[in-house]
Structures are given as structure tokens and as C-alpha cells.
Amino acid sequence: MDLGIQGKTALVAAASDGLGKAVALRLAAEGANIVICARNPGRLQAAVQEIRATNAAVHVNGFEADLGSADDISQLGDQLRKNQLGIDILVNNAGGPPPGFCDDIEDRQWQQAFDLTMMSAVRLSRLALEHMRTRQWGRIINITSYSVKQPMPQMVLSNSIRMSVVGWAKTLSNEVACEGITVNNVCPGWTRTGRVEQLLKARARESHLEPEEIEQALIAAIPSKRIGEVDELADVVAFLASARASYVTGTTLPVDGGAVSAAM
Q1: What are the chain's domains?
Q2: ∠ at Cα 186 (183, 191), nearest 5°?
Q3: Which pTM does this prediction carry?
């Protein structure tokens, strides 16, 4: 299937590793030019080279940015304008906030999580909409978590702030739909990333078990009986980024092997 994004420019946030890098690789394979950002310069440049190797016909740019910093995102916008990189496809992604129970989290951690998870999506979307509105075409996809449909234990920051992203995205989707711009949320379940390894270890410490035992207990509760792979999430994002998904907007789609128990 031709996704109709060859020659489009996609900005994928936090794409030096994990879900973000998998999405960038998938979009590059479809012929989209890629812009990625990340904090670690070494991993950033390694990811740029890996994405270039996927498809020599596409342009790949990488910029350092801390997504929790308004100044860094503003500077990223300056770099995009300087290099005449108008964004057609935006994939909002950021490393999730740390695990913790309600009583564990201080005000400072709430503010950091809000800036990283919520405000990074808002600020990056403002940048991308500058170009999308001139073209009357655009795709904004937010990578959130299946916790927006089924909150997870010991994840109060993620459970709370990711739901705010969903509310904002639905509101934005209604405002820009008539301009040919769609806004959707993709909600990965348990997917094999470094972030998931961190969460498994945190749960293991709390329960005095091995991470492998925690993983097996999680798998037992997933109808697909396995943890997902990053490429499976990337395929869904690529469809929502495509011309084929022009009548899909305002949705929140779990990619979780059936782990969410709710019918909707």
C-alpha cells in the first residue's frame, strides 16, 4: 500500500532510541524526509546515520533538544526555520515520567512531568502547525500509553498527565480538521523498550521479585500472550501519518495486544 507520504517531512521527537527511532525508521522507509531530536548528542547522531542507511533517497536531520525545556523547543523552531524545514507530520513522543505512588511524588516532579509530557506536545504542535496550515495538510500523532484507558499501578504521573494530552488532542483535532490536519493518539501497551525494562525493574524492587517474574505475570494478563515489538507500534503510527488516514482524527488507539479490558 502506498501511504502517500513520499517527500513529506516528519519530525519525530525523542527518536534516538526506542519507539521514536522505530517510527522514524518506518517513515523513512516510506520515503518521508526525517527530522529527529533528542538530548544525547552521541545517540542522536548514531540514530541519524541509522535512519539515513534505511533510505538513501531521503533527507535526515538531527537536532539536540530537551523536550522538557521551553527554550530548547523554541531553539528547535529556529533551526527548522533556518533550514527551511516545514513539518508535514509530527510525532510527539517523550520519555515517560518516573514511576511512583501518589504519596511519593513532590511538586517539582509534577511540574517536570507536565513540561515533558504535556507541554512538549503543545509546543511542538505549535511549531508544526505553522507549516501545516499553509499547506492545508498535516498529521499530528501523539505517542501516549494505554494507561489513558486503563490506569496502571505505581504510575500516577503518567496516568494523570497523559490523560491531559488526550483531552488537549481531541480539542485540537476539532479545531484543525477543516484545514486538512488530523490529530490522533497512539497508546502502546507493554512494548519491548528500555523504558519498559526500567518499569519492570522498579516493580521487581517493590515486590522483591526478579524482573523476569514480573514480565511473565504481565504477559499472562495480555490476551496476545506476549510483549509487543517497537515495529508493531511504528506501523500503526505510519498509517495514521499517511494520506490514507485522512478521515481518522480525534481518536485514541491502543496498540497493546488486547491488554485494555474496556470495550471502547
Answers
A1: 9-189+229-255 (3.40.50.720)
A2: 160
A3: 0.94
